[in-house]
Specification:
EC 1.3.1.-; eight-stranded parallel sheet; TIM Barrel; 366 residues; alpha/beta; Non-ribosomal Peptide Synthetase Peptidyl Carrier Protein, Chain A; flavoprotein; RNA-binding; tRNA-dHydroUridine_Synthase_C; tRNA dihydrouridine synthase activity; binds flavin mononucleotide
Length: 366
C-alpha cells in the first residue's frame, strides 16, 4: 500500500474546514444489512467498487482501498482474446492486469469475450496463477467495439443460453474461485429480459449477479431503474443480487438497501472524483456519522499522490496523459472546476501537472 495515499486517506479533516460537516445518519431508518457472500468470499461491507475501463487501474484501486469501505474491488475489463494473444506472441500480459498479482485481496478481475473456451482459459489463469478472489464476466458493455464488432458484452443479452454456456464453462475452469456476471436489464427498453437472464446465470453456476439498471440501448441516458432491479430478487434462489446505477451519495446507498431488495450495491462513476464515497457509504450503513469529504487541500495532495502512482507504472509522459481525466473527475462540482479542467487537459509533463494543480485546482474559501 503506498504510504502517501494511506496517510492522506487516514488523516483527520483539517480543523475548522470540514469536520463540522460530519453528518449524523438516522439509525432508525437503517435496513438490516448483512455481509454479502460470493461463493466462500465474504464481502463486507456489501458495497462493491465497479469495474471501469480506463479508470479502475491499480493506482485508483489503491486509493479506494486506502479510504476503505468497499468490500470488493474490481479491475477494468480485460479482453480475454487479447490476453491469450499477448501471452503467446509477446510473453506479456495486458496493462489492465497491472498490480493484480501482488495487491491485497479481495479483488475481482473482469473479463470479456463471447467464446466459452477463451474465457475459461483466461479464467483458469486468473484463478491459478494470479489467485484472484473473483472472476467476473462482462455481459453489460454497450460500446460498439465490444458489441457489434466482437459480439460480446451486452450483445450476449440477445442469447441468454450462450451466456449460460459461457458461465458453465468458466465456472468449471475457475473452481473453487467464484465466477460472477455483470449485466444490464436487457438490450433495449422493449426487450427487457433480465428475469430470464438472472435464472440462467444462476442455473449455470454463477456465484453472484450484478445488474446495472439500464438497458444497452440506454447507454448512460436517463435514470437507472431500481424498481426493475428489485423485481429480480424473488427469482433468484441461491445467489446474491448486486444493484448498480446512479448511486452517488452515502444516503442513496442506504436507500438502495432499504427500498430495492438487493444484497449488495456497486458504485462506479461517482467514485471517480470521490474515492472516499465507499468509506462514507459504509459508515452510513453502520448507522455512524458520515465522514466529511476531504478538504480541497487534502484533495490536491491526493491528486499529486495519484499522479505519482500512475507515473511509477507508465512513466511521466503516459502518466500525464492518463492523469488528465482523473484530475477532471476530482475537480468535478468544485468551484472553479471549469478553469482547472481547461488547463489540466493539456498537461504533458509532471512539472506542468504540479503547476496547473498549484495554480488552478480550487481552493477552500475560508
Ligand atoms: C468510463 C466507464 C467505464 C466503464 N467500464 C466498465 C467495464 O470495464 N466493465 C463493466 O462491467 N462496466 C463498466 N462500466 C459501467 C459501470 O461499471 C457501471 O455499471 C455504470 O457506470 C453504472 O454505474 P454508476 O451509475 O454508478 O456509474 C463503465 C462505466 C464508465 C462510466
Amino acid at each position: 500500500m503506498p504510504n502517501g495515499i494511506t496517510a492522506i486517506a487516514n488523516r483527520k479533516p483539517l480543523s475548522g474546514l470540514a469536520s463540522s460537516d460530519t453528518t449524523p445518519f438516522d439509525a432508525a431508518v437503517l435496513p438490516i444489512v448483512t455481509p454479502l457472500r460470493i461463493g466462500d468470499l465474504v464481502v463486507d461491507p456489501p458495497i462493491l467498487q465497479a469495474p471501469m475501463a480506463g479508470y479502475t487501474n491499480y493506482a485508483f484501486r489503491q486509493i479506494v482501498r486506502a479510504y476503505g469501505g468497499a468490500g470488493l474491488l474490481a479491475t477494468e475489463m480485460v479482453n480475454a482474446r487479447g490476453f491469450i494473444w499477448m501471452d503467446r506472441e509477446q510473453a506479456e500480459h495486458p496493462d489492465r492486469l497491472w498490480g493484480v498479482a501482488d495487491e491485497p485481496r479481495p479483488l475481482a478481475v473482469q473479463i470479456w469475450d463471447n467464446d466459452p473456451e477463451t474465457l475459461a482459459a483466461v479464467g483458469a489463469r486468473l484463478t491459478h496463477e494470479y489467485k484472484v478472489s473473483v472472476v467476473d464476466i462482462n455481459f453489460g458493455c454497450p460500446v460498439r467495439q465490444v458489441t457489434e464488432k466482437a459480439h460480446s458484452g451486452s450483445y450476449l443479452l440477445r442469447t441468454p443460453d450462450r451466456m449460460g454456456q459461457i458461465i458453465e464453462r468458466v465456472v468449471a475452469a475457475c473452481h473453487p474461485t467464484p465466477v460472477t456476471a455483470k449485466t444490464r436489464l436487457g438490450c433495449s427498453r422493449d426487450k427487457i429480459n433480465i428475469i430470464d437472464v438472472a435464472q440462467i446465470v444462476e442455473g449455470a453456476g454463477a456465484a453472484a449477479l450484478t445488474v446495472h439498471g439500464r438497458t444497452a440501448a440506454d447507454m448512460f441516458r436517463g435514470q437507472a431503474s431500481w424498481d426493475l432491479i428489485s423485481t429480480i430478487k424473488p427469482h433468484l434462489k441461491r445467489i446474491p443480487l448486486i444493484g448498480n446505477g446512479d448511486l452517488d451519495t452515502a444516503e442513496k446507498v442506504v436507500e438502495a438497501f432499504r427500498r430495492w431488495n438487493v444484497d449488495g450495491v456497486m458504485i462506479a462513476r461517482a467514485s471517480l472524483g470521490k474515492p472516499w464515497l465507499f468509506q462514507q457509504a459504509a459508515a452510513a450503513l453502520r448507522g455512524e456519522p458520515i465522514p466529511p469529504d476531504p478538504t480541497l487541500e487534502e484533495e490536491r495532495e491526493l491528486m499529486v499522490e495519484h499522479f505519482r502512482l500512475v507515473c511509477e507504472r507508465f512513466g511521466e509522459e503516459r502518466g500525464a496523459v492518463l492523469m488528465r481525466k482523473f484530475a477532471c473527475c476530482y475537480a468535478q462540482g468544485r468551484p472553479g472546476a471549469r478553469e482547472f479542467r481547461k488547463h489540466v487537459v493539456g498537461i504533458e509533463t509532471a512539472a506542468e501537472f504540479f503547476d496547473v494543480v498549484e495554480q488552478w485546482f480550487p481552493r477552500s474559501v475560508v
